[in-house]
Amino acid sequence: MKIEKLSPAFKDYLWGGTKLRDVYGKKCDYEKVAESWELSTHPAGQSVIDGGEYDGLKFGEYLEKVGAKALGVNGAKFKEFPVLIKFIDAKQPLSVQVHPSDEYALRVEGEYGKTEMWYVVDCEPGASLYFGVNRALTKEEFKKRIEDNTLTDVLYKADVKKGDVFFIQSGTIHAIGAGILICEIQQNSNTTYRVYDYGRRGADGKLRELHIDKAIDVSKLTPSDTSDKQGKPEEIPGGTKCALASCPYFTTEKYVVDGEVEIDVTGDSFASLVVTEGSGASSPRSAMSENCTHDCSSCGEECPSRQNPESFLAPMNKMSNVKKVIGVVSGKGGVGKSLVTSMLAVTMQRRGFKTAILDADITGPSIPKCFGIHEKAMGSDDGLFPVNTKTGIETMSINELLPDETSPVVWRGPVI
Questions:
Q1: Quick one: which of 25, 56, 160, 291 is 20 to 30 A from 150 by CA?
Q2: 3-state DSSP call for residue 139?
Q3: Is 182 in contact with 118 (CB distance < 8 Å)?
Q4: Cα(224)–Cα(156) distance, integer angstroms
Q5: Residue 184, strand partner residues
Q6: Burial degree of 191 (CB within 10 A; 0-12, 13-18, 19+)
Q7: Which residues are catalytic?
Q8: Which stretches within 109-251 are classed as H helix?
């Protein structure tokens, strides 16, 4: 495994501060350093290889040279590099904004939508941010409040502290408040619909553009699940680690290092290491044992070169990220499979796990009914997009695909 160091691209948005340069040592001559894009192939700002054989290459050019092997099996499934990682220094509040889903963004903007995660690196006393609405709104009220500048009255305001984590799904109205420094892990997208901007003017002296109609199209107007989804710290040799967030595009973990820690990187995916505090050094672990005979059947080493037997599992969709599967199965109807499944999903989500339900019941609408779901699943050339419950559990059921959710279904063919 080879480690590449990256230098970021910088942004000087009007709301930015100078902490990234003055406190965190970023080398940038901008008067304001609002953002540093640490891991990016986006045309609006690419990071650059710093040192070594590929020194000076834009990250996108580097990936073209080394090929898909640098991304791992999961990363290579995507047409574009899947993630973008940045630091954000908000001296002033950012605009109230929303990002579209993949389905909407691909259809309207020609790029993917944006789901993101915020890790609060530091903040001023009393700092806060907006995360979704504080009660259900109609589209008519949403539009009226944008027009009469009262939108923030119906947004959920969250006080923040260092170390907080917020998972912002596409369609969630949000805004980072003043005095917050954030590490943001997001989909590789720069599509943002601004809905309120405190009457600020850009460098040209004109009011900054709002995108009201598109925001109305994509915004989720019911309260979001604002609970902190961080897992509990787990003791490991040399420190601790805990899960922060997971979605089809990225999985994040936090390591607190007090000594030397090994981070497993397999052929499944690349890994990006972001240091938010302190200093240290990194080095690659040898990919093979020194005594490797290349006969994996008699070897106990856990190395990336291990030749595993061929799996009979069908490959996941490139946009899927499934770690654990719990099957709730019965050969008889009416015994409570849907109830048990729903309760399991809700309980695991409350414990900080990202959960989803694949309803394999051909004729029963129990799962959508359990959660009061009447929306239809959408799709694109990349596949079907699940329907989310009010608390963010992703669901897929045949009843979400039928024109009439009560229609009977006749299935002819094998069922496994």
A1: 160
A2: helix
A3: yes
A4: 9
A5: 86, 118
A6: buried
A7: 194
A8: 139-147, 212-218
Q: Are 229 and 350 in contact (CB under 8 A)?
A: no
Q: In the structure encoding, which two tokens stand for residue 79, read together?
A: 């047409």
Do residues 114 and 186 make contact, with C-beta atoms less than 8 angstroms apart? yes
Say how far apart CA 206 and CA 204 lie, in whole Å.
6
Which sign, positive or negative, has the C-alpha torsion 196, 198, 203, 205? positive
User: Which pLDDT does position 311 carry in this prediction?
Assistant: 56
pTM (two decimals): 0.70
Alpha carbons 79 and 67: distance in angstroms, whole number: 13
Query: In the structure encoding, which two tokens stand for residue 325, read together?
Result: 């599967």
Q: What tokens does 340 get?
A: 């048990």
| Cα angle for residues 80, 83, 85 (degrees, 5° grid) | 140
Q: 54-75, pLDDT tens digit by residue?
A: 999 999 999 999 887 788 888 8
Do 273 and 261 contact (CB within 8 A), yes or no? Answer: no
Residues 375 and 400: beta-carbon distance below 8 Å: yes
Indicate if the alpha-carbon torsion angle 271, 272, 273, 276 is positive or negative. Answer: negative
**CA triplet 267, 270, 275: central angle to 5 degrees?**
140
Average pLDDT over residues 28-45: 95
Helix (H/G/I), strand (E/B), else coil: 339: helix
Helix (H, G, I), strand (E, B) or coil at 151: helix
Let me know the angle formed at the C-alpha of 230 by 175 and 126, rounded to the nearest 5 degrees: 40
Rounded distance, CA 94 to CA 118, Å? Answer: 14
How far is residue 195's CA from residue 208's CA, in Å, rounded to a whole number? Answer: 10
Taking CA atoms, 50 is separated from 47, 53, 54, 61, in Å, by 9, 9, 8, 13
